Amino acid sequence: MTIHDMTAVDLLAAYKSKKLSPVDVVDAVIERIETWEPKLKALYAPDFGGARTAAQASEKRWQAGQPQGALDGVPITIKENIATRGVPVPLGTAASDMTPAAADAPAAARVREAGAIVLAKTKVFKNMHRIGAELYASADLVQLRRLLVITRLHETRRLLAHQCLRQQLESFRP
To answer: What CATH number is attached to the domain comprising 116?
Structure first.
């Protein structure tokens, strides 16, 4: 199994056993992005420098046996329509106000608090609802799905719900 085939749960287990580090994973994912992104054009506002800095901090926490949270070191992307501090929120259209967001939206804040590493924002394509089955079956989309190690939604919810239970939080809603 390659890094690109691993789930968030797989990555966290590899970090705990010291088989991989967040720096190894982020570097591998960035290399894959740099290979495919010129063709796919799926990302908005990549922050590879920030991701590498976050990966180094995560690696130190894992080495000390003190991960920050349930997603510490897991590289993710966030849809461009979810606000992240300092990045404009174009909402899939050039008609949007391109003022940088003052703060993270709650969903972005929660994954950051859990230690996830935000690599970039993914674009919201206009008229996506009208794109037919030919796109979904295309090789580009298959490659897009393999492009990033993205935390699957059900895994994220399960991990965060578990974290909430551990911290005796009443509820969590991303």
So the answer is: 3.90.1300.10
